[in-house]
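Narrative of activities, Objective 1.

The group set out to show that a structural description can be obtained from nothing but a protein's sequence at a throughput compatible with the screening campaign. Below is one input-output pair from the validation batch, recorded exactly as produced.
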Amino acid sequence: MADDTKFLLLFFLLSSSLLCFGSEHDIQCLKSVQQSVIDTDGVLKSTWNFEHETEGFICQFAGVECWHPDENRVLSLRLDNLGLEGPFPQGLQYCSSMTGLNLSNNKFSGPMPTDISRQLQQLTSLDLSHNSFSGSIPPSITNMIYLNLLNLQHNQLSGQIPSQLDLLTRLTTFNVAENLLSGPVPRSLAVFPASNFDGNQGLCDSPLGECSRKRWMPIRINDMSSIGAAVGFVLGFVVAFYFPHCFVCSERLRAYVVRII
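Output recorded for this entry:
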């Protein structure tokens, strides 16, 4: 009986220490986010006050949803439509229990983090739509195996959609419309409507039109033929101009050839 009591006490002490440790990390997460973004409207500056740290105080912050109102553990961040600017926010990896991140309808720019899956391991929902994120979609995003929603529409993302997105078997919402993407749409994403891929002139394959070399290969056969013909014409003209005796066999035509000595 005494051993059972000791075990329970040890369990509760360990749980309490882990909870405290997690809470400190979540607070650090929000501090890093606040410091790394450009808050033009002052929303985060005015509502995220870290001066008096109590149980659940971060749950009162604008855009912060907690697992429990009396617990400093972030469930999701909904920072959409706040006029935020700058690169992708820093410190999000400290919100280790966060399952949702919404940064849509702001003015964020620059690339998505290459290690986004390490920073946001538990996410089920990621909405970065209606910003100015650029560069490619990081392949590591395919390691975010719990994702149900991935919205990237209305940005400046380029390159191809990672083929490894086939691994995200839980996706029920996916949108990359109005970007600069090219290449074939991964087969597993063909279940989504064509409108979710619109505005990317280089994208092809189901649910869009069939891919062809002419649509998205960087070097095309027709182009090579045209270049070859042009080079051949210029080379022939130069040789004929400087070495007319090699080409003009008729005495009647030879008179019209001007030689430069």
